[in-house]
Amino acid sequence: MDRKAARKVYQVLNEQYPEASTHHRAGAPPFESLIATVLSAQTTDKSVDEVIGPLFARYPDAPALAEARVEVVEQIIHKTGFYHMKARRIIDASRMLVEEFGGDVPDTMDCLLRIPGVGRKTANIVLYHSFGKQEGIAVDTHVLRLSQLVGFSDKNDAAGVEQDLLALFRKDEWGKLTDLMISHGRKICIARRPRCTICPIKQLCHYHREFVLSVV
């Protein structure tokens, strides 16, 4: 897909999902954003939202979570899945924040990527929603899948997809693009059962053109 067509897709999605600009983690304190994003792997926002209240009530900052007993944290975050691994990751991340960053979440990509359990997706989300910085595009499962279906990228890995998206979109669109694609992936372009007949971008979509129209 060329930049002109990609820009049109962005404009349509931006009109379709005005609520995407009010992401439920937008403006969250950096520590909350970081921990919640790490917990969000392989689970739903609903599950994360149900556990972060009790988690932060008991461990409100990095120094507190750094001293937590792993079995207690596991019990609190149990419903997010993979809780053994996640508990250790957020405790280890908190320890690094204390030991190397004075207990604060750093606001640069390089520093964030040094933290246990933090990859580019998490770093991009924290930078955009907590610091207002756009240094890349967060590629989660929705963004990866939609990028391939719509025709933004033919890559199969998050790093490759991110590079293609960075080339297609303006820097001031990078942060919101993730939220728009997540909204579209949840409401219309649903995994394994996309609702192509009501999709507002179907005329621009590679999947619709090549696989839906071809069998009509």
**Please, how many helices?**
12
Order of helices and strands: HHHHHHHHHHHH
Count of domain modules: 2
The percentage helix is 55-70%
CATH architecture of the largest domain, by name, is Orthogonal Bundle
Which regions contain 5 or more consecutive residues with pLDDT less than 50? Answer: none
Rounded to the nearest angstrom, the distance between the terminal CA atoms is 23 Å
Any idea what the CATH superfamily of the largest domain is called?
Answer: Hypothetical protein, domain 2
Question: So what's the overall shape?
Answer: elongated
Q: Which fold name is given in CATH as the topology of the largest domain?
A: Endonuclease III, domain 1
Mean pLDDT value: 93
Alpha-beta classification: mainly alpha
Number of strands: 0
Task: Describe the 3D structure.
The chain folds into 2 domains: 3-22 and 137-215, Helix-hairpin-Helix base-excision DNA repair enzymes (C-terminal) (Endonuclease Iii, domain 2); 30-131, Orthogonal Bundle (Endonuclease III, domain 1), CATH 1.10.340. The protein has helices spanning 3-16, 30-39, 45-58, 62-66, 70-77, 83-101, 109-112, 120-131, 141-150, 158-168, 174-187, 206-212. The longest helix has 19 residues, at 83-101. The protein has 216 residues and is mainly alpha-helical. The mean pLDDT is 93. Helix 2 (30-39) runs antiparallel to helix 8 (120-131), helix 5 (70-77) packs across helix 6 (83-101) and helix 9 (141-150) crosses helix 11. It starts with a helix and ends with a helix.
